[in-house]
Amino acid sequence: GGVRYAGNQFSNGEAVPNPSSSDPLNNLEGILIKEPEPGEYTVRVIARRIVEDALQATPEIDQDFALVISGGLQRPGEGLLILDRPAYTAPAAITLRLIDEDLVGQAAVSLRMRSDSEPQGEAITLTAIDDSGNFEASLTTTRVGSPQEDGSLLLRDGDLITVFYDDADPQQRRSATAVADLREPDIEGIAIENQFGKIRIDLDTDEATRVTIRYGTTNGPLDLEAANPNYQSAHRFFLDTLIRDENYRFVVILEDRAGNTVERSEANRVFEFVGPSAPTALLVDSFYNDISLLTP
User: Fold this and answer.
1) The pLDDT of residue 56
2) CA-closest candidate to residue 222, choices 251, 201, 265
3) Beta carbons of 263 and 239 less than 8 angstroms apart
4) Which residues of the chain are under the pLDDT cut of 70?
5) Please, which residues bridge with residue 97 across strands?
6) pLDDT for 245-254, tens place per residue?
7) DSSP string, 94-159
């Protein structure tokens, strides 16, 4: 049910979430996630076709391989606190997970989550979700009210959100932090250009966002879509298979890391462009080779 990545499926130098295809040819494959979402990841190595058994000691036909993973990874045995987002809006929900193998068999863990606007914080009880030391709970956020314990964490834009866990073995205080972002993302600049028979849209946003462009003909629904699933502040889209000289319109949907989502248009109306005409081309299907007539 989560996001899936496949080897060598990149866009702008980063692995594409939920790609439509994979790479069945290369024996060296990679995945790069510049800012991975917090949580557990499962790595599967699948052999498409094995022409020779590489491990003679086993009865099955096997292919050996090497796997390298790098990043800010927790050491074995250390407790780990995970917030499901790096930023939060309000009203919304914060999901907190604790992973600690030393707590296997325990039913629940009580912690306290705080913000700058509610320094005393809110109690949050994480319950076991399996038998391997994984605990999880959610806490709602609000932007109204007073800083008192009422089951919702009060947030103001720019607040630091913190939660601590005292790990018994090895003995150390673990923490997880995020920020409150209550502002909607916005477009800083947009350019539309006919490039080689395609419409190119360059779009800059005031913060890292996911962008979706929904477009269609002037008299029809906005039922076509182009999207960039990566959080970026500079986006480029190419729209093809357009009807020649047809008027099109589109809107832009922005979503930031906190989950603030907004639809943007131009001066309270949709953006517009005209389907590109095919450029004039000269086709040559035969020629006379007069080079052979030259003599030294």
Assistant:
1) 85
2) 251
3) no
4) 1, 38, 266-270, 278-282, 285-296
5) 82, 136
6) 899 999 999 9
7) EEEEEE-GGGTT--EEEEEEEESS-TT-EEEEEEESSSSSEEEEEEEEESSS-SS-SSEEE--TT-
How much of the chain is in helix, strand and coil states, percent to nearest 5?
Answer: 0, 45, 55
Is residue 126 within 8 A of residue 136, CB to CB? The reply is yes
The answer to whether the Cα torsion of 118, 119, 125, 131 is positive or negative is positive
272: left (phi over 0), alpha (psi -120 to 50) or beta: beta
Distance from C-alpha of 180 to C-alpha of 95, rounded to nearest angstrom = 14
Are the CB atoms for 38 and 82 separated by under 8 Å?
A: yes
| Reported pTM | 0.76
**Residue 77 DSSP label:** T
Task: Give the tens place of pLDDT for each residue, 144-196.
Answer: 888 888 999 999 999 999 999 999 888 899 999 999 999 999 999 999 998 87
Of the candidates 8, 30, 17, 34, the residue with the CA atom closest to the CA atom of residue 232: 34
Query: CB–CB of 109/134 below 8 Å?
Result: no
Radius of gyration of the CA atoms of the chain, in A: 27
Q: What is the rounded CA–CA span in Å between residue 180 and residue 154?
A: 10
Looking at the chain, the whole-number percentage of residues with pLDDT higher than 70 is 91
Phi-psi sector, 158: left (phi>0), alpha (psi -120 to 50), beta: left
Neighbours of 213 (CB within 10 A): 20
DSSP 293: G
Q: How many beta carbons lie within 10 A of that of residue 188, not counting itself?
A: 12
Q: How far apart are CA 141 and CA 144, in angstroms?
A: 9
* Cα–chain center distance at 255: 11
Question: By C-alpha distance, which of 126, 145, 146 is closest to 137?
Answer: 126
- Residue pointed to by tokens 């991975």: 36
